[in-house]
Structures are given as C-alpha cells and as structure tokens.
Write a structure and sequence with these properties.
mainly alpha
C-alpha cells in the first residue's frame, strides 16, 4: 500500500486539524494492534482512512449514502456520524481496500456496533485517544484502563459514557444502537 498517495489525498480533502488527527489515529491504532497481537499495518491503514470523508459536506455525505449505501435510519439521526459509512465506501472505491476488517473498523468507528471485534474496538479507541488532537488527560485515563483485566471493554464503556453525556449536553438525538452497546458493555464489564 502506497501511504504517500493516501496521505496526499487526505491533505487535499481534510482540514489541517483533521489531517493531524488522522495521523495520530493511525499511529495509535498501530500501537494498540501491537498490544493486542493484531495486524499493525492493517490497523495503521484503518486509522489513516477512518475519517477520509469527515470534511465532506452533509449534503455530499447524504447523497453518497442514498445512492450507494445501506444505512440504518437511526444512523442518520446525527450528522456527526454520517462520515463513517461514507469513509468505508471511499476506502473501498477510491483506494481499492477490500479487507473486510479494515472496512468494518472504518464503518463502525463512530457508533460502534454490538459484538465489535477486537480490531474494530482498537480503531474505535484510537480515534478517541490519539495524542495529536485529543484531550491528554482523558487519553491517559483510557490508556491506564487498557492495562487492567478486561481493559478493552472497560475503556470502551468509559467512551460510551462520555458519548452519551456529550449527546445529552448538546441536545442531540441518540441512536438506540448506542444505548444497546452501552448496556452490553455494562454486562461485559460487570461479569
């Protein structure tokens, strides 16, 4: 995979902060993949492309979804999550990524899904804790939790708690899937 071409495309299609976030997510995903004995290059690539459609207009995202993708109605409740399925679509169509693990991790990096794979979980977390643009105190808290027994699920639970609080505080609609994942993580952490 030629990362130079991908990075050039990202520079042209993302703003500077989002590009820095993307590089941080790719590096963080690679580190987490190493920790969990997963494919580091696949994780890096998923991190690199996870937000490739983030700076598209809402109109463009909706147009791509309507013409090309099967997206649940509840996913359309919040404009901030529209880029995830479109980013997976761009990864596949623009960059010829066919690896299902990579595409799924990109696809579910915002909402998540029930029964996420470990690979999907690390890309999800890398997006939340990368060092370039994310809050250092929060990131360190998550990194510390990852060292605990069942740390991956505990870290995800913390992220979902923060997401739910943030959505309520901003008076945004909440996809029922988010609540279902939160409840499932509660069970996984408590058992």
């Amino acid at each position: 995979m030629d990362y130079t071409e991908i990075k050039q495309w990202l520079k042209e299609n993302l703003n500077e902060e989002r590009y820095l976030h993307t590089l941080g997510t790719a590096d963080c995903a690679k580190e987490l993949a190493k920790k969990y004995n997963l494919d580091e290059e696949k994780a890096y690539l998923a991190g690199l492309l996870h937000d490739c459609a983030k700076c598209f207009s809402n109109e463009k995202l909706i147009d791509i979804i309507k013409k090309n993708l099967d997206v649940e109605e509840c996913e359309m409740l919040n404009y901030k999550t529209l880029h995830a399925p479109v980013s997976a679509y761009i990864a596949e169509t623009q960059f010829n990524i066919k690896d299902k693990d990579i595409l799924s991790a990109i696809r579910w990096h915002t909402l998540g899904r029930l029964d996420m794979t470990t690979f999907e979980k690390i890309v999800f977390l890398a997006d939340k804790i990368e060092p370039n643009t994310r809050d250092k105190e929060y990131s360190q808290k998550i990194i510390t939790i990852l060292k605990e027994e069942n740390g991956l699920n505990k870290a995800l639970l913390i992220c979902y708690k923060e997401t739910l609080k943030s959505l309520v505080n901003r008076d945004l609609k909440i996809c029922l899937l988010t609540v279902e994942i939160y409840n499932k993580l509660q069970d996984l952490v408590k058992n």
